[in-house]
Amino acid sequence: MTSIHPTADVSPLAEIGEGSRIWHGVQIRERAKLGKGCIVGKNAYIDFEVIIGNYVKIQNNASLYHGLIVEDGVFIGPHAIFTNDRVPRAVNPDGTLKGASDWEAGRTLIRRGASVGAGAIIVTGVMIGEWALCGAGAVVTRDVPAHAIVVGNPARVIGYVSAGGVRCASQEEAIERTTQEQRPDS
Q: Can you give the residue range of the structural domain that contains 38?
């Protein structure tokens, strides 16, 4: 059963999947799409037209801005921020206030099973690969390969991880281990 806390502000134009739970103070804007079985933690912000897959966990105070697509099974840690403007300005060069027609939102893609740690900042225009792990506080400024572990500012690859969270020596090993983890027991 879908559950929306009374203090949440969910646009009637947003689509909320069956079984999703939306907690205190969450704001979900118009035409945002949230898949089934998602959990959205306290005070999270989901901007207009953001697309979120099934079984995604979004922790407290995360900010997901327009231009973001999140695939199934992604974990987004507390206070994570997904930006959408590489050159943010409040005004145009002539001093007039910028409006919607004065800029174009960037596009960001978070692939299936990826994890974004607490306080990480994802700069617009990047793709985070399947089962990748962005460490707490990482500032991701470029694409992250599948299964990669990235940390730091700017984020850099320090290793690889399987879908089950086991550290691996290479991306190939992480992919092979993930295949083994996904096989049903005989």
A: 3-86+103-182
> Rounded to 5 degrees, what angle do the CA atoms 64, 68, 70 make?
90
**Would you say residue 142 lies in a domain?**
yes
Read off the CATH number of the domain in which 173 is found: 2.160.10.10
| Separation CA 185–CA 162 (nearest Å) | 18
How far apart CA 114 and CA 31 sit, in angstroms, is: 24
pTM to 2 decimal places: 0.94
Q: Give a yes or no: residue 93 inside a domain.
A: no
Residue 97, in any domain of the structure: no
Strand 21-22 to strand 3-4: parallel, antiparallel, or no bridges (unpaired)?
parallel
CB 140 within 8 A of CB 150: yes
Q: What is the pLDDT of residue 150?
A: 98
Q: What is the pLDDT of residue 10?
A: 98
Q: What is the pLDDT of residue 103?
A: 85
Q: pLDDT tens digits for 103-144?
A: 889 999 999 999 999 999 999 999 999 999 999 999 999 999
Instruction: Output the pLDDT for position 85.
Output: 94
In a domain, residue 58? The reply is yes
The token pair at 59 is 């922790």
b/e per residue 124-137 (b: at least 16 CB within 10 A): bbbbbbbbbbbbeb
- Total domains present in the chain: 1
